DNA sequence: AACTGTGAAAACTTTCACAGCC
DNA sequence: GGCTGTGAAAGTTTTCACAGTT
């Protein structure tokens, strides 16, 4: 039996469970039930059990889950028990904010180099990371075995950044530019888009004024 | 007939369609088909038509959609044809990056004030916006009629920021802190979480090592 | 002929509810 | 008694496929 395709929803929740489990572990709690995990992460106990069941059987009936063991299992499942080397493209404000995000390194995501096209920036150091010319992207990605790329460029430069990262051998991209990236199917891509989220809020806060079918 | 609950998926896609339509309009294109919209935004033509059908009938059979008219309709549906006044809580690196995001203001989301607790920052100006003490949050939100709050604080300060924003009368929150916010049901909340997205990439790039049932 | 709008079918996700184990 | 693991049911989203309109 091959692993059934795991949905994005499940993966997202596993991350949330893991974050909580680490807090519980730091607080000295040794055992946790699916109900408690659910209450603290905003889902249902059945959902927690179903999510975990895709990967195996981690609890003891009548008892619950051992916090430390489940933490370790989720780290292995998510692949975060290791170091990921990351290439950042774009050393502007978003890039700088990411470079200063200490949590990222603590969680195993190490930004090895920041690439930019601005000659003023190249050669400088931002938050302790060197800014390197885009021309050297392929070489540095190969040399330092960077597997994940973060795109924090202006929108018009994002597609080329993605192309270059993919060609250089990166296997996943986190995209902050508000554009849809065209990529090969074997490249994992996720996007974060502030404008989209704000528009979703705007929709939620806007009274319905759209055309409507009559009743009856 | 009341409007059926519109899913987050649909809202997200409407935003994407709108962004594309604006580009097409700027490029002088007058008519677009659901197929073209789908190809350019990465979905299916049936999905485009179904999404729009929740709000009315915007196209002409045999012809397609008038770009300018559909743009205007989507702006009205999403509620982005107006100005939204925004409160930013946290004037650190993420806050600064957001303040510098020119697109936000151009799209109608105006950050009116940035709140912080750091006495060093209060009174200064970041990207043209004044940094104000958290003590004045309620007063400023009321006075300037701020309806949306953005939380860009450290995680441990996020819940209090949310409570204060809600109490001050904000109706929606965009949360950048990696915590789950407890809020009243009538407050719209959306979260953006870099760590979660990176872990989702990590999962996608990690070969399956989880326990497995035997075949047969 | 081209393309929309939409019920019906398929696919997917969540919840239910209970057997099984501690 | 308490709690997990899991099939089955319910609910949600996407895709299909075609009648209807220009």
Can you describe what's shown?
The structure is a homodimer of 216-residue chains. With 216 residues, chain A is an alpha/beta fold. In chain A, 43% of the residues lie in helices and 17% in strands. Chain A has a 7-stranded mixed beta sheet with strand order 5-6-4-3-7-8-9. The first copy, chain A, has a two-stranded antiparallel ribbon with strand order 1-2. Chain A starts with 7 loop residues before the first helix and ends in an 11-residue tail after the last helix. In chain A, 37% of the residues are buried. Chains A and B meet through helix 1, helix 4, helix 5, strand 8 and helix 9 of A and helix 1, helix 4, helix 5, strand 8 and helix 9 of B. The structure holds a DNA duplex (22 and 22 nucleotides).
Features:
216 residues; alpha/beta; 7-stranded mixed β-sheet; homodimer; disordered C terminus; 9 helices; DNA-binding
Briefly say what this structure is.
Chain A is an alpha/beta fold. Chain A has helices spanning 8-26, 34-41, 45-53, 67-78, 93-99, 102-106, 137-143, 155-168, 194-205; strands spanning 31-32, 65-66, 84-89, 109-116, 125-126, 129-133, 148-151, 172-175, 188-191.
The sequence of SSEs of chain A as H and E is: HEHHEHEHHEEEHEHEEH
Mean pLDDT of chain A: 94
Model regions low in confidence, pLDDT < 50 over at least 5 residues of chain A: 211-216
DSSP strand tally of chain A: 9
Query: N- to C-terminal separation of chain A?
Result: 51 Å
Tell me the number of helical segments of chain A per DSSP (H or I, 4 or more residues long). 9
Cα gyration radius of chain A (Å): 21 Å
Largest sheet of chain A: 7 strands, mixed
**Range of strand content of chain A:** 15-25%
Helices and strands of chain A: which structural class?
alpha/beta
Q: Give the proportion of residues in helices of chain A.
A: 40-55%
Trace the largest sheet of chain A across and list its strands. 5-6-4-3-7-8-9
Shape of chain A: globular
Oligomer: homodimer
Count interface residues per chain for the largest interface: A-B, 67 and 67 residues
């Amino acid at each position: 039996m091959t692993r059934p395709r795991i949905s994005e929803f499940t993966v997202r929740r596993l991350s949330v469970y893991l974050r909580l489990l680490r807090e519980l572990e730091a607080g000295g709690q040794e055992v946790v039930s699916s109900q408690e995990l659910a209450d603290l992460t905003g889902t249902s106990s059945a959902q927690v059990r179903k999510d975990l069941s895709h990967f195996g059987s981690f609890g003891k009936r009548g008892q619950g889950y051992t916090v430390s063991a489940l933490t370790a299992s989720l780290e292995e499942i998510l692949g975060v028990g290791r170091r990921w080397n990351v290439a950042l493209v774009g050393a502007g404000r978003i890039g700088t904010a990411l470079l200063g995000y200490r949590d990222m390194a603590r969680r195993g995501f190490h930004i090895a180099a920041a690439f930019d096209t601005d000659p003023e920036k190249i050669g400088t150091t931002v938050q302790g990371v060197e800014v390197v010319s885009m021309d050297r992207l392929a070489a540095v990605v190969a040399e330092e075995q960077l597997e994940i790329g973060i795109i924090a460029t202006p929108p018009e430069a994002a597609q080329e950044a993605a192309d270059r990262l993919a060609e250089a051998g990166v296997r996943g991209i986190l995209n902050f530019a508000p554009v849809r990236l065209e990529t090969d199917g074997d490249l994992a891509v996720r996007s974060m888009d502030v404008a989209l989220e704000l528009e979703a809020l705007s929709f939620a806060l806007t009274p319905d004024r759209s055309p409507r079918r009559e009743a009856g």
